[in-house]
Write a structure and sequence with these properties.
Order of helices and strands: HHEHHEEEE
Structural class: alpha+beta
Helix content: 25-40%
Strand order of the largest sheet: 1-3-2
Shape: globular
Number of helices: 4
Largest sheet: 3 strands, antiparallel
Radius of gyration: 15 Å
Distance between the termini: 44 Å
Length: about 110
């Protein structure tokens, strides 16, 4: 009972540490990142995924469309997320986390 089981480090560990150390980010940014993380494919952290603004706003508790777009544009500008908007009502916009690894950004040199 005194032994602690070591859990493997998740691919996003360094990404979340980077977010936690960034003083520019507010709770709304963190909520939006959590919503994006919830909607992405956990099997491959470098892959693009789709999510709708409505679902992201509901999950992150952001009530204003202006606040959502401000937070998202800042996450893009700060180098945390790639974003390609979609105006298709069912498909949602395209996102990808920018994860810095030993091999460069998203595993590339």
């Amino acid at each position: 009972m005194g032994e602690r089981m070591e859990l493997p480090k998740h691919a996003f560990s360094a990404f979340f540490e980077r977010i936690g150390d960034d003083g520019r980010l507010l709770p709304t940014h963190i909520g939006l990142v959590a919503a994006l993380f919830y909607h992405h494919d956990c099997g491959n952290p470098h892959r693009h995924f789709h999510a709708s603004r409505r679902k992201l706003m509901r999950f992150s508790r952001i009530r204003s469309i202006a606040t959502y777009h401000k937070c998202l544009s800042e996450l893009v500008a700060y180098g945390y997320v790639e974003y390609r908007p979609s105006w298709h009502p069912a498909k949602g916009s395209r996102f990808r986390f920018i994860i810095r690894t030993e091999g460069g950004v998203n595993g590339q040199d």
